[in-house]
Structures are given as structure tokens and as C-alpha cells.
Write a structure and sequence with these properties.
The complex is a heterodimer of chains A (700) and B (374). Chain A contains 22 helices and twelve strands. With 700 residues, chain A is an alpha/beta fold. Chain A has an eight-stranded mixed sheet with strand order 6-7-8-3-9-10-12-11, with helices on both faces. In chain A, strands 2-1-4-5 form a four-stranded antiparallel sheet, sandwiched between helices. With 374 residues, chain B is an alpha/beta fold. Classes of the chains: A alpha/beta (700), B alpha/beta (374).
């Protein structure tokens, strides 16, 4: 399995009027593809803060003090807001606790579901246009530098081809979409005719007929297709009789017949519109006899022979020119990074002036060296500036605090000292990472294949050209939204699409929120107490739904809750958090059958199950004040198994098995042997017995 | 010296007199908990326009027990609690507390008028007297029923100190003696696990669990007989939930409280209650002792509710199959409508005659199975 998300040594604090609240204190975990990680803890344990850090929606007074959240090769703690827009909601989505307040009460459900799709669609169009124009401009100038002849005339032809090609493609897709919508509506009408009033179904049929005006395209259904026209006319005539008498056999028959040619049209292969555009422009259009594959092959041959092969070669020359320039700069950068690192030696206090100077120098150089033509962005180089600036800023801050601390030595005001060593190391780490990555690139410079790269480039440009014309229409978004609503188990999705949030029950509302979160097809779904506001039966349904979606879409899920009972069914791995730290981490089986940390015991003991009779072991007291986190184990104060060392020193993570860790001194070899509370051992005993009984039944 | 002693005695007398003022026996001297239930709810109906929030619910609560009321949100369990305490005018039904009427529905009044007219026409003076006595609604008894609310933030006035919040009920009862009020406030604060110094603070200075303790203190300061606890723990953290449950359990033993416990978390209800009523869409569908209910869940809705409880046991969770309850598929009420019937002693289910027979057979089967296993 591949790691989707890695959180390493995350430290987050919040500045408040009363002091710095240490909300998350050095936690690490990773999330694999298709896996559920549950984070369990009381309110104020830092579980939501962790989730918000991953989403990049921390409050303004948050102070990310260190650590990394690595997703897709990028550190989410360091990338700037502009880049985060592309990830938040699209790749990482979140479901919030309260289904009431996450929906807009005065906007219909359908609008709320499709809004983002349509807006994103428009933004993508603009972005594609910009990228296309930029790339063409850069490419042309590089090609001229490389000494390619007739650059302008070549690009003129290419621009014409993409222009015409993408427009024809857009028209084709528009017609195809209408056909798709017709098929959907026919299916809907066939189902509805069973139990709906004829009036309603007749309206649907009329909509089908209306749609049919815009479906004709030479490569799908030809204009004047006699069979379809006949069927449509038949349907038109049959509607009044159906409305009057209500017998749906005749109309059903027509609809079924109509569906066949439409579905067949949808299954046809797609023509190569760019080759077609070239053939049209050069008046070399081959004859179309109905076989699209054959047509494609013929057109492609003409296109390649007369234009594209030559064009690709010139593009390759341009790319090589640009790359060579970038590499010559990169070798200089590696040198200057080395000098910078030699000025900031490990283990010594870095001079702030030197740090600032070097950071500025290196980041301008790196910015200058960026190869803006390459399709795959080099994440290290692109994020270097923001990341090193952030590191230098926090370092400066830390130095300031330290200075004030020295001045006010007698006052206890500046108790919250910042870890200077950590910050100055962050600066060095950023530089080392950049140097290593550039060195690696320089090493592999010889192996670059410009033929492949230029192929990729042309394809990329064509893609951007069609994206430029690709519009997410309302209708397209609606089809997708209704599919999503059906997927999350909302019955009669086509009707409910037009309703307002108040017309939905709590569970249904939470399903809508899940559907919205899924609309962009994310990799990672973060659920922040999604069922706390719901009651048992609805909770069970929502949990089942999330589990189902996880399997179907291979989602990775982070599930935050305070209820251990809920996660037994959901989680592959569980992290128990207390006072900003992970105190126990393991698979669900390990955590429930062999819990090791006293806090986990206490959580298990404090909730009754159906067989509990004895007095509950409540956890006394309240969680500690995180402005002054306790020196030793944070749970020691409320822990009846606490030892002297718990009050003095923080326990490290002890390894129990390869997947099971716990931070408690009880696991130290010298610690006395302690049994979990009776209520917990009894329950585990009972669960094991029950499992054996049931296991026996299955086997026997 | 003697004077001082006298003053002390006087103060003591006064305190005990005020104390007596708060005691319930003064109102209902003839009440005998061994014969009569503490609270009797008969055919309670609460309609909001066309919504039947509570539809024909009857149950008794015995003195000293914890009566759990469960059901999904919107099934009318909170409305039932609020109707009993008189927060809504009843549509229909009778509510008796310690044998005296504390609530009468609008439709019940109509019926009563008809009966009275009939009795008068028949010249039955005894019946007329009995009817007249039955018509009296003892609103003053209502102070002996107190409520604990779900939301510990919203249920405390942010502009009042804890002392004012807790003493408000005493003041409304007409007690003006400052010393007495202070003593009582300190006493209940200690009882719920806070310290008397907390009385001068405002609610926002407390954590959620502590606020719920203040809510409990406010409820017990009037020495109630019955406490209606409306989801008192569902807004609290897990570790605090156990503290509050333990506190309520202690208070119940100490003060001899009777508690009506409204919740949707079945594991907690099972742990805390002696008897449980299950509500679905405004109707009580099943009512039994808590062990009996979990040993023999009979109504399909109760079964679906039980099958939805998540447990901290991954292997069990993998096996757990949730049962869905669809009323139209589960019951056939075309011939005979359902009634609240006693299937086996002490176990009531909403069913018709055919279903009742079926349920009895199922109970016998379950018992036989269990016996065979042993």
C-alpha cells in the first residue's frame, strides 16, 4: 500500500491573551491508501486542530511551530494559499460535525451540490487558457533561440489546428451530453411510470422530446435519422392518450425502442478532432464512410506526415535549449547553497543577518532558474522561497522572545520559550533538501529524452486547448450531482435535488454534506465527529455509508471522534490523543483487546456497555491547562496508576508490537506490573469468549 | 449566653419550619408509594397543529426507580417530559403525581364536562363529588418535579451567578431568609461535587461537566421527588459522562430520588435505568424492565434500535448486522389495529392480538434456547 499522507513531528500552538496554548505537541502518523485512521480523544486534546492543519484551515492565531504534513510530495505546512486552493476540497475533503450549520438554509440542495462544480469548471477554463498562451509564447521564444526556422508560421498553423479542433470537439461533446441526459431521462421515466401520476411522467417525456432537438452530430446520430424521428413523433402522439388513460405500456415500449440507438451512439469511438482540423485546413479531408476508427487512422497519417513530425522536432529543440539554460544555472545554485550551508554550520547559533542574506540570495537564484516550460513542476524549487522565508521568520521571532526572556529573567512572563535549535535547524534542512534535489537532477540530465518530452508537450498543449473549451454546464453538473446523491443513498434523488435543506432530516442532511465533500472526487476524506449530532440508528447508517464509500472509491479516511464505540467498526488504525500528544497508536484489534495506556483503559472503563452492572470508573478531574502543559505525563494527575516518574518526565513511545505503540512508563522494563481496571479486563474476557463461541459456530 | 442560645434555637426552628415548607408530605399526606405509582401518565396526547408529537402514551413511574425513555430524535420523548411538567398545554390525557392530578388535556376536560352533566342528570351526588375533586389540578405539586436539561450552556442564564441560579427556585417558593438560602445553596453544591466558593462565579467560568453539575444542583435544591433528566449527558465528553452518571446514581441513593431519564444512547440507558420505555413516532412501542427488554426485545423497532448500538469490540462489529425497521413491512394492521398489550407480566408491547400470540411464542423460544445452552 502506498502512503497517502504523512504527518511528522507536528507542533501547533495558539497565541491567546492568556499565553500560548500548546494544542498539538509533536505528533506523527501516516495514512495509507484505502485505510481509515481514527483519532480518539476528549475535546481539547488537539484532534480537530490536527485535522484543520491538514486542511489548511487553522485559525489566524495559530502558530505552526514545526513538523511536516507531506501529501503528494508537498509539505502542506509550507505551501502558499494559492497552491492550497488546488488541494483543499479537490484532493482533501472534510465533513464537519454539525449537518445543520454546514449547509446554506436558503439555497436549494441541488445548487449547493453543483455550485462548486460549475465554479471550478469556469476557473479551470480560465486557467487552461492562460497556461496554453504562456506555454506557446515561451516555447516560441526558446525555439527561436535554438535557431529553428519558420517558428511563427509553424505556430500559426498549430494555433489554428487547436482552435478549430477544440471547438469541433466542444460541439461534439455538447451533443453527446444531450444524448446522455436523454438516456438518463428515459430510464427515469420508465421507473416513474410504474407508480407516478401520468401528469408527472408526461412532463418528463416532453423534456425528452425537447432534448432531442440538440443531439444531431455527424459522428453520433446523423441529422434526419428516420428511425429516431419516427419514434419521437410516435411518442409525441402517444402522450395525450397516456395522460388521459394512464396505461403506460405503449409509451414504455416506445421509450425502450428509443433508448437503443441512443445508447449505441454513446458507445461509438471518439474522432481525433485535432487531426481532423488540420485535414480541413489543408483541404485534405478523407471521405467519411461511417467507420470512425478508419477515419481517425487516415487523418492521423496526413497530420503526422505533413505537419506534426516536423513540429515535434522543433519543439524538442526548444525544450532542449530551455533545459540546458536551466541546468547551467542549477549547477551554480548548488555551489551557492553549499557556501550558504558552510556559513551556517550545524550546532552553532546561526547569525540572523547571514540567514536572511543567504535565504534571499538563494531564493532569487532558484526563482530565476525555474524551467517554466517543463510540465511537471519541481515542488522543491517552487516552494523553496515561501518555505525558507517562513523558517527565517519563525527563527527571528524565536530570537526575539529569547532576548526578552533574558531581559526579564526575574519575571515568569516568558515561560513559553520557543525552541530555537529546532527553528534554526529548519532553515538548514530547507537548504539541504533543495541542494540534494538539484544535485539529483543534474546527475540525471544526460538521460533526458527530448523526443518523448516533446511528444508529451504537444499532447499537453492539445489537452489544455480542449480544457479551454470544456465547459461544465448546469446540465452536466446536475447529472453528476444526482448520481452522487444516489451514491450516498438518498432515495428519489431527482426530486430531492430541488428541495431546501430544512426539508431533509438530520441524517439525510449529513448525507448531502458527504455528497458535497465527494463531488470533487478527493483522495482523502477527513470526518470531524460526523455522527455526534445524530442518534443511534442514523449514526449506524452514516457509518455504514462512509465504510461503503471507502471501499468503492479507495478513499483514505481520517475519522475523528470522542466515542471509542463508534470506531470499532470503522477504523483500521486508531490513535488515542490526550493533551496534544498521541498516547497510544495501534490497529483496532490491538487497541480494543490489548489496550496498554492508562488513558485508553480509563476511556474504555468510563462507558457502560449492555452488560455493565458495576459502578463506572469515571476519570476524575478535567484535562490540564495547555498554556502550562505538565512537565511529566500529561495524564498523570488523573491517573490512578501514576508513578513518581510520570510527574517528572514525559514517557517516550514504547513499542509493543510492530504496529502498536504506547507512551506510558508502565511499559518500561523496570516498571511494576499493573493490570488494567477490572471493568476493562472483564469486558475483554467476555468479548473473547463471545468471539470464540461465534467463531466455533461458523467453523462447525 | 442564654439569649444567644435562644437565638440559635429560634434560628433552628425557623430553618426546620422552612424545611417543612419544602417537604412533599404536606401536600399529599395520604400517598402510599407501595400501593400507588409516583407518576401516572394516562393516554397522553400532545398535538402541535397537525403534528402528533405524542400520541396516546401511558406509563407509570414507581417511587425510587429510574425510568428510561429511548427513541430516535423527533420521536416525542422530550415532548413527553415537557408535557408532564406542564411546559405545553396538553391536548388530551391525564397526569397524576403522588395520586393527585397535575395535568389535564383539553379533550379530557370536554369528556369530564360530559360525564359531569350525565352524573348530575342521574342525580348521583357521590359521582358528582368525585368528578369535582378529580378536576382540581394541583399546580403547586409541580415544584416537586424538576428538570435537568440537555444543553449545559444554554440552560444557565449567563448574567446570573451560580448562587442566583440555584436559589431562584427557593425564592419563587416564597423563601426570603437569606441565611437559609445560603446554607441550602452550599449544601447542594457540595452534594454535586462542587465547593461553596463556586456560588459567586458565573456559568462561563465552568467547564461543560461542571455546568451540568450546576444544572443538577438547581434541580435538587427544592428537594424534588421526581427528576426529569432530558439527555443530561449527550452534550458532554465521554470521560465527563461517566462522572455525571455516577453523580446522579449517588444522588438517587442519597436522596431517594425517582428519575425519568430521557436519552438515545441505549448502553447508558440500560446501565442506568430499572425500566425502559421505547418510543417511535409519538407512540410507546415497548415497555419492560431493562433486563427483560434486552433479553426479549419483541417489537421490531426495539430490535432495530438494539442492532444499531456500536460496541468497543472490532470482531463483534464485523459480525453485527443492522436490522432496519420499516413499519409497512413489519406489521399488518389492516384487520386489527395495534394496542398496548401486556405480552408477559410486566412487559408491554404495542401490537394486535395475532402479533401478541407470536411474541409470546418467541419469548418461550428464546428461553428454551437459553436453557438448552446451559
Amino acid at each position: 500500500m502506498a502512503k497517502k499522507l504523512e504527518v511528522k513531528n507536528l507542533i501547533i500552538s495558539f497565541r491567546t491573551n492568556n499565553g500560548t496554548v500548546k494544542a498539538v505537541r509533536n505528533i506523527s502518523f501516516d495514512l495509507e491508501r484505502g485505510e481509515t485512521l481514527a483519532i480518539v480523544g476528549e475535546s481539547g486534546s488537539g484532534k480537530s486542530v490536527t485535522a484543520r492543519a491538514i486542511m489548511g484551515i487553522l485559525a489566524k492565531n495559530a502558530l505552526p511551530e514545526g513538523g511536516e504534513i507531506i501529501y503528494d510530495g508537498q509539505d502542506l505546512m509550507k505551501i502558499d494559499e494559492e497552491d492550497f486552493h488546488k488541494i483543499r476540497g479537490n484532493r482533501i475533503s472534510m465533513i464537519f460535525q454539525d449537518p445543520l450549520s454546514s449547509l446554506n438554509p436558503i439555497v436549494r440542495i441541488g445548487k449547493q451540490l453543483t455550485e462548486a462544480m460549475i465554479l471550478n469548471g469556469k476557473a479551470n477554463q480560465r486557467e487552461a487558457k492562460r497556461v496554453y498562451n504562456d506555454k506557446i509564447k515561451l516555447l516560441a521564444s526558446e525555439m527561436k533561440e535554438a535557431g529553428v526556422a519558420d517558428v511563427d508560421s509553424k505556430f500559426k498553423i498549430f494555433n489554428n489546428v487547436t482552435d478549430d479542433g477544440s471547438k469541433t470537439e466542444r460541439d461534439y461533446l455538447y451533443n453527446r451530453e444531450r444524448i446522455e441526459s436523454m438516456v438518463k431521462n428515459i430510464d427515469g421515466a420508465l421507473i416513474d411510470s410504474i407508480d407516478k401520476e401520468p401528469k408527472v411522467v408526461a412532463a418528463e417525456m416532453k423534456r425528452i422530446i425537447k432534448d432531442s432537438h440538440n443531439i444531431y452530430n455527424p459522428f453520433l446520430i446523423k441529422e434526419g435519422d428516420a428511425e429516431l424521428h419516427g419514434l419521437l413523433a410516435e411518442l409525441q402522439n402517444a402522450i395525450p392518450a397516456y395522460r388521459k388513460e394512464g396505461s403506460h405500456e405503449q409509451t414504455d415500449e416506445i421509450l425502450r425502442k428509443m433508448r437503443e440507438p441512443l445508447q449505441a451512439a454513446l458507445d461509438l469511438p471518439k474522432p481525433d478532432f485535432y487531426a481532423m482540423a488540420y485535414c480541413k485546413l489543408s483541404n485534405a479531408m478523407p471521405e467519411f464512410n461511417g467507420d470512425i476508427d478508419q477515419l481517425n487512422a487516415q487523418m492521423k497519417q496526413t497530420f503526422n506526415e505533413q505537419f506534426l513530425n516536423d513540429f515535434r522536432e522543433s519543439v524538442g529543440a526548444g525544450l532542449k535549449n530551455s533545459n540546458d539554460k536551466a541546468f547551467s544555472k542549477k549547477s551554480v545554485i548548488v555551489e551557492s547553497l553549499d557556501t550558504a550551508l558552510s556559513r551556517m554550520k550545524e550546532g552553532e547559533r546561526i547569525d540572523l543577518k547571514v540567514a536572511k542574506e543567504e535565504a534571499k540570495k538563494c531564493s532569487t537564484m532558484i526563482e530565476d532558474s525555474l524551467d517554466r516550460l517543463s510540465i511537471h513542476k519541481d515542488s522543491v524549487a517552487y516552494t523553496f522561497k515561501s518555505s525558507i522565508n517562513a523558517a527565517v521568520d519563525t527563527y527571528q521571532e524565536a530570537l526575539k522572545v529569547e532576548k526578552k526572556r533574558h531581559l526579564n529573567r526575574n519575571q515568569k512572563l516568558f515561560k513559553d520559550r520557543m525552541d530555537i535549535d529546532l527553528y534554526q535547524n529548519n532553515i538548514r534542512l530547507d537548504m539541504i533538501r533543495a541542494r540534494d534535489s538539484f544535485q539529483e537532477q543534474l546527475g540525471s540530465a544526460e538521460q533526458l529524452n527530448y523526443e518523448e518530452l516533446s511528444d508529451e508537450m504537444v499532447e499537453f498543449l492539445c489537452d489544455e486547448a480542449s480544457k479551454r473549451e470544456h465547459e461544465v454546464t448546469k446540465r452536466k453538473a446536475q447529472i453528476r450531482a444526482i448520481e452522487l446523491m444516489e451514491e450516498v443513498g438518498i432515495p428519489k434523488a431527482r426530486e430531492r435535488y430541488r428541495q431546501y435543506p430544512f426539508e431533509f432530516s438530520g441524517g439525510m442532511r449529513q448525507r448531502i454534506v458527504i455528497a458535497i465533500a465527494l463531488a470533487a472526487n478527493p483522495d482523502i476524506l477527513i470526518c470531524d465527529e460526523p455522527t455526534t449530532a445524530l442518534d443511534v440508528t442514523i449514526q449506524a447508517q452514516i457509518l455504514e455509508l462512509i465504510n461503503k464509500l471507502k471501499v468503492e472509491r479507495k478513499l483514505s479516511i481520517i475519522f475523528i471522534t470522542h466515542d471509542l464505540g463508534v470506531v470499532a467498526n470503522m477504523a483500521d488504525k486508531i490513535a488515542v490523543m490526550y493533551a496534544g500528544k498521541i498516547v497510544e497508536y495501534g490497529t483496532a484489534d490491538e487497541l480494543f483487546y490489548e489496550p496498554a495506556h492508562p488513558y485508553t483503559w480509563a476511556l474504555l472503563a468510563s462507558m457502560p456497555d449492555l452488560d455493565t452492572k458495576e459502578k463506572l470508573d469515571a476519570i476524575p478531574g478535567t484535562p490540564p491547562n495547555m498554556i502550562f502543559p505538565p512537565q511529566g505525563d500529561a495524564f498523570a494527575e488523573r491517573n490512578k496508576y501514576a508513578m513518581q516518574i510520570d510527574l517528572e518526565e514525559q514517557p517516550p513511545m514504547f513499542k509493543i508490537t510492530d504496529t502498536h505503540y504506547a507512551a506510558t512508563w508502565l511499559l518500561h522494563p523496570d516498571a511494576p506490573k499493573v493490570e488494567p481496571p477490572k471493568i476493562v479486563t472483564d469486558r475483554i474476557e467476555r468479548m473473547k469468549k463471545l468471539n470464540e463461541e461465534n467463531g466455533g459456530e461458523i467453523n462447525g | 449566653m442564654a439569649e444567644k442560645n435562644n437565638m440559635q434555637v429560634e434560628a433552628h426552628d425557623k430553618a426546620s419550619e422552612l424545611d417543612r415548607k419544602l417537604r412533599v408530605d404536606n401536600y399529599t399526606p395520604n400517598f402510599d408509594p407501595s400501593k400507588e405509582p409516583l407518576l401516572r401518565v394516562e393516554h397522553l396526547k400532545q398535538y402541535f397543529k397537525s403534528t402528533k408529537a405524542v400520541d396516546d402514551v401511558s406509563f407509570n413511574i414507581r417511587k425510587g426507580e429510574v425510568f428510561g425513555l429511548v427513541g430516535e430524535s423527533g420521536c416525542g420523548k422530550t415532548t413527553t417530559g415537557r408535557s408532564i411538567i406542564g411546559l405545553y398545554p396538553l391536548t388530551d390525557g391525564d397526569v397524576y403525581f403522588r395520586g393527585k392530578r397535575i395535568g389535564m388535556g383539553a379533550d379530557a376536560v370536554k369528556r369530564w364536562k360530559q360525564k359531569l352533566a350525565e352524573a348530575k342528570a342521574a342525580g348521583d351526588t357521590a359521582a358528582v363529588a368525585a368528578l369535582n375533586e378529580d378536576r382540581v389540578v394541583h399546580k403547586d405539586l409541580m415544584t416537586k418535579i424538576q428538570m435537568i436539561f440537555q444543553d449545559p450552556v444554554g440552560s444557565l442564564d449567563p448574567r446570573m451567578t451560580v448562587r442566583e441560579i440555584i436559589a431562584e427556585g427557593l425564592k419563587i417558593r416564597g423563601i426570603r431568609d437569606k441565611q437559609f438560602i445560603d446554607d441550602r445553596v452550599s449544601e447542594v453544591l457540595e452534594k454535586v461535587g462542587l465547593v461553596p466558593e463556586h456560588a459567586e462565579r458565573y456559568p462561563h467560568e465552568f467547564s461543560g461537566g461542571q455546568r451540568q453539575r450546576i444544572g443538577i444542583a438547581r434541580a435538587i435544591v427544592l428537594q424534588p421527588d421526581l427528576i426529569i433528566a432530558d439527555e443530561p449527558i449527550s452534550a458532554l465528553d465521554v470521560s465527563i459522562q461517566a462522572q455525571v452518571i455516577n453523580l446522579m446514581n449517588d444522588l438517587r441513593d442519597e436522596m431517594g430520588l425517582t428519575i425519568m431519564f430521557i436519552a438515545h444512547d441505549l448502553s447508558v440507558v440500560k446501565y442506568f435505568s430499572d425500566r425502559i420505555g421505547v418510543m417511535y413516532f409519538g407512540r410507546m412501542v415497548e415497555l419492560a424492565d431493562s433486563d427483560e427488554l434486552f433479553a426479549h426485545p419483541l417489537h421490531p423497532y426495539t430490535r432495530s434500535l438494539l442492532s444499531a448500538i456500536p460496541l468497543p469490540d472490532p470482531n463483534y462489529e464485523k459480525r453485527r448486522k443492522r436490522i432496519t425497521y420499516v413499519p409497512a413491512l413489519s406489521h399488518d394492521y389492516t384487520e386489527e389495529g395495534p394496542e398496548f398489550k401486556e405480552v408477559i407480566p410486566g412487559h408491554f408491547v404495542l401490537c394486535n392480538t395475532a402479533e401478541c400470540e407470536k411474541y409470546r411464542k418467541e419469548v418461550a423460544d428464546i428461553d428454551a434456547n437459553a436453557a438448552r445452552k446451559q
